[in-house]
Design goal:
Two copies of one chain form a homodimer.
Chain A lengths: L1 H35 L2 H32 L3 H34 L10 H24 L2 H26 L7 H33 L11
Helix pairs in contact in A: 1-2, 1-3, 1-4, 2-3, 3-6, 4-5, 4-6, 5-6
């Protein structure tokens, strides 16, 4: 019985790592969809999101069963509760990629990204990739030091987001209101994606150490 | 021992109801801050958000202790896990009110809401109030039928959100890019506030019945 128990606990961890892979792939394709007006990439992100939702539900089910049947305490219990939080964050990261993909699909065959913002959006996509890749690594290695780096990585995302808004607010910005709306929301979605990656890392720190990083859960 | 246990379980429910009250008050004041360019209201929302964060942390702590010490099963376990989810949603609703309050503060002494959008924003504020008030009532009465109404209430919020975007996209829209950005994000924050209220209600349904409403966790 204890063996199955530990297998189930390990499986939770594996499923979270898998979610991080899915979220990473979704975000990479969503950025491609936006920049290249790539309808196939957009559709792929939208249709593949169910997989992420399914794993989220599975994690919830397994976590519940583990708690009900095995009545874990201390670190195991912390691990299971933390897995629920992380799963919610990773599921949400998939949603944010879907939002971006839907923007790309709505504007197809045009690109939702005006030429002068291509560099910033490319950079935001890359920074999102850094964040979700690190979150995945943090999960697989249970690496607290690496986890604590994500705040700084997210600061870079926030800086890119500010630069994007500065560009839109520049008197030279001559694009349509529709374009302004799309860019405003896209910027927000990248920024939130970064926040959730940081959450995942912070949850890992709590899981391993029992201590929450400073200001955790205070970020808005 | 069991008495303390049930007191703690009841206390979790009470704290969630209290969070719904805080979130409702925050959103009502945030809407006032936006519409009336009321700096005091904005500051109040921003400074009072810590209270919501504190209760969220307290719920997490109590839930963990309950699971570790009492090893609840079946409905009690479901109640505790659900409380964690609801607490996260309600805490986030406070954050969204803070975002709106910060927009109002940034634009003070001007109002962030152009005259032609005052009616829609007033309606969105009222709809947010309906949603969070019902979520609170759902929590206090554990009323599954009422909980299932929230999807329809949220449809009204989504409709208001669409009308807002239609107004911004109208060729008559002559406001600054800054204003377009603020309104775009404000609309998004109201819409997300509604989504989280629906989540709270759906979690309550799951808590009471053990069944998730259709498409729960699939909303993006």
């Amino acid at each position: 019985m204890r063996d199955t128990y530990h297998e189930d606990l390990d499986a939770l961890g594996e499923r979270l790592i898998e979610m991080a892979r899915f979220a990473r792939h979704a975000m990479e394709r969503a950025t491609t969809a936006l920049l290249e007006a790539d309808l196939n990439a957009a559709q792929e992100v939208i249709s593949e999101d169910d997989a992420l939702n399914d794993i989220d539900e599975e994690i919830e089910r397994v976590a519940f069963d583990l708690m009900a049947r095995q009545q874990p305490v201390a670190q195991d219990l912390r691990m299971i509760i933390t897995a629920l939080h992380m799963s919610g964050d990773l599921e949400r990261m998939g949603d944010l990629a879907v939002h971006l993909a839907k923007t790309a699909r709505r504007r197809h065959p045009e690109s939702a990204i005006p030429p002068e913002l291509r560099t910033i959006v490319t950079d935001m996509g890359q920074q999102a990739d850094v964040l979700v890749a690190k979150a995945g690594e943090v999960l697989s290695k249970r690496d607290v030091d690496l986890a604590l780096q994500l705040e700084q990585d997210d600061d870079k995302m926030d800086e890119l987001h500010r630069r994007m808004l500065t560009r839109i607010l520049d008197p030279d910005w001559q694009h349509s209101v529709e374009s302004t709306i799309d860019i405003t929301l896209a910027g927000r979605f990248y920024e939130r994606f970064g926040d959730h990656a940081v959450h995942v890392a912070n949850h890992l720190v709590y899981m391993v150490t029992g201590e929450k990083p400073d200001d955790f859960d205070r970020e808005i």
